[in-house]
UniProtKB/TrEMBL annotation:
PANTHER family: ACYL-COENZYME A THIOESTERASE MBLAC2, METALLO-BETA-LACTAMASE DOMAIN-CONTAINING
Name recorded for this polypeptide: MBL fold metallo-hydrolase
Record-annotated Metallo-beta-lactamase domain positions: 21-233
Pfam (any one): Lactamase_B
Length: 288
């Protein structure tokens, strides 16, 4: 079984998923293509992308977290918001990789029972979301190197692919460097970790709940013009544009102190508080 799952989503846009972990998105224009995030780096992503398009491919990042930048060294050009440059240059430390692998193994241990329940009752799992086994030597082989010195992405910049453009929207909150990419003509929003089908991570030291709420409110203003929201995590990686309003409403409710909140644990197994909504949930710091 391949580590990756790929499929076309709409014209010249492909999902490049590491199921159960992270989604990257390949977007092609007439002259060139970009890979929105390069994934974990557990397996080479460049050959996977090359099989989908013959156009030259660069990487543009939604932010600098480990699971979004692991394939950078396979590409000649990458780009990120200035606030993410230092983290991108530094690379992921071994302790962070160990924490991630511990999370992945907990997920895989739960997957067998979940598959049985899903097969009998719920029918939600698909090739996009059913997690693959980790490579047997992943503890020693997974050590992604930083990529080339990045180009910079600022709010309002336009990534020109030839006959197709992506506009950069700086959406801090999950991290200071978080951005989304908007294909205005096709009505596509590549949302990174600013929008997910839950839980949405706002609990880390670098997260800013006030900025997060403002960023999601900004995206909600685009809801009528967005056909599809293309996200980085969890089993439902694609949503309708109206979902942007649901996420913004969730953040507004949380900020107003009106959310139902319960204790939970994040992917590092750290205690957090989880604000629960019909469409998603939001993790915030346990002591916040």
């Amino acid at each position: 079984m391949s580590w990756f799952r790929t499929r076309p989503v709409t014209r010249d846009v492909w999902l490049v998923a590491e199921p159960g972990h992270v989604n990257s998105w390949l977007v092609a224009g007439r002259d060139r293509a970009v890979l929105v995030d390069s994934g974990l780096g557990i397996a080479p992503v460049r050959p996977v992308v090359a099989a989908l398009t013959e156009r030259p491919v660069d990487v543009v990042h939604t932010h600098a977290h480990l699971d979004h930048v692991g394939g950078d060294a396979e590409f000649d050009r990458v780009a990120i918001h200035p606030a993410g440059v230092a983290e991108l240059r530094a690379g992921a430390d071994p302790a962070e990789r160990r924490r991630y692998l511990a999370h992945a193994r907990r997920l895989l241990a739960a997957a067998e029972a979940y598959r049985a329940l899903d097969r009998d009752f719920f029918h939600l799992l698909s090739g996009d979301s059913d997690p693959r086994p980790l490579p047997p030597d992943v503890d020693t082989t997974w050590d992604p190197c930083p990529g080339p010195e990045p180009d910079l992405l600022h709010d309002g910049d336009v990534v020109d692919l030839g006959g197709r453009t992506l506009r950069v929207l700086h959406t801090p909150g999950h991290t200071p460097d978080s951005v989304c990419f908007l294909d205005e003509h096709a009505g596509l929003l590549f949302a990174g970790d600013t929008v997910n089908t839950g839980p949405i991570y706002a609990q880390a030291p670098e997260s800013d709940l006030t900025a997060f709420a403002a960023s999601t409110a900004r995206l909600a203003e685009l809801a009528d013009d967005v056909h599809l929201v293309l996200m980085s995590h969890f089993g439902r990686g694609v949503a309708e544009g109206r979902y942007l309003r649901e996420v913004a409403d969730a953040f507004a409710t949380l900020r107003a102190g009106e959310a139902v909140v319960r204790p939970a644990r994040d992917c590092d197994d750290d205690p957090v508080r989880e604000a629960v909504f019909d469409a998603c949930s939001i993790y915030v710091a346990a002591d916040g």
